[in-house]
Write a structure and sequence with these properties.
Number of domains: 2
Helix content: 25-40%
Number of helices: 6
CATH topology of the largest domain: D-amino Acid Aminotransferase, Chain A, domain 1
Structural class: alpha+beta
Distance between the termini: 11 Å
Radius of gyration: 19 Å
CATH architecture of the largest domain: 2-Layer Sandwich
């Protein structure tokens, strides 16, 4: 079927929040989360949408929420697969089918929960590692090479900045921010979901090198929210092409980052348009990751 692009949703419901990728609508105790085809790189939203990206993000998150719900509780209720939904007081635009989900509303914890299974630290992370041997206060083995698998996954939280770049945090700083009980919960639960996803994906030929999670409070329980193990929140590599000590081919938006670096963009708004072939190729990579991991076809309007 023909790929589609939706960069902004219009729903007759109160707008709760609009993020880089998602439009979120308020339903009282629940939220309607719409994943658009917007894409961000280096913390800037690009003017070019990626075909089918929102379908992949929503349906892959739903897949993982269902797979890991017995390991870690999450906010997922159901995927939007019809224009009429119980509890939603208006008929939804048909274009939202497959790219929107109904979730429980929570009080978000302002921590980006990063889990790293491989040494991909970014320029600032490598600088910190070479200077201190650590990242976010977590000691790492000496002599690591780019894309080298770590003996054990490590949890390295960051701030969740509304604008600009997130900053590394120590575990002690997360305790100060969200409290000891919640800080322990998000660390343990992030590692648990990552380990499950890593092992599941590896059997299907994909390395999940790292990922980020978000959590919120619901009835005094810390639960997983937002998205889960998608090409936007994770680095996906083809396992049969993994080579330590060099950049890796990927199924995620690294393809877009590489293009923007090649054209010399200074990473300041406004971002340049993507050529049609770059957008199309990125969409293909997202769809391939979805098919490999789920064995399903995308639900489309």
């Amino acid at each position: 079927m023909t790929a589609s692009i939706l960069t902004e949703s219009t729903v007759d419901l109160p707008l709760y929040a609009r993020g880089k990728v998602r439009d979120i609508y308020d339903l009282g105790d629940e939220l309607l989360i719409v994943a658009t085809d917007r894409i961000s790189a280096f913390d800037v939203v690009l003017p070019t949408g990626i075909p089918d990206k929102g379908l992949v993000l929503t349906q892959l998150s739903a897949f993982w929420f269902e797979k890991t719900g017995d390991i870690v509780p999450n906010h997922f209720i159901r995927l939007v697969d019809d224009t009429r939904m119980e509890g939603v007081p208006t008929e939804l635009p048909r274009e939202l089918i497959g790219r929107a989900m109904l979730v429980h509303k929570t009080q978000r914890l302002d921590v980006e929960c990063i889990v790293r299974g491989y040494a991909v630290l970014g320029s600032a992370g490598w600088a910190e590692y070479h200077e201190t041997g650590s990242i976010s206060g977590v000691k790492l083995p000496p002599g690591l090479k780019e894309a080298q698998e770590l003996f054990e996954p490590v949890y390295t939280p960051t701030t969740k900045a509304e604008e600009g770049h997130d900053e590394n945090m120590t575990f002690e700083q997360t305790v100060e921010l969200v409290g000891e009980q919640a800080a322990n919960a998000i660390a343990v639960r992030s590692l648990a979901v990552y380990r499950f996803g890593r092992d599941y994906a590896r059997e299907r030929g994909i390395i999940i090198a790292d990922t980020k999670f978000e959590f919120g409070r619901l009835d005094d329980e810390v639960i997983l929210i937002d998205e889960c193990l998608t090409p936007d929140s994770s680095r996906f590599w083809p396992a049969d092409q993994h080579r330590t000590g060099q950049p890796q081919p990927s199924f995620d938006k690294q393809y877009v980052r590489d293009y923007l670096t090649e054209v010399g963009w200074d990473r300041r708004p406004p971002a340049p348009e993507l050529p049609a072939e770059v957008a199309a190729r990125t969409g293909e990579k997202y769809r391939e990751a979805f098919h490999r991991l789920t064995g399903r076809e995308l639900v489309r309007p």
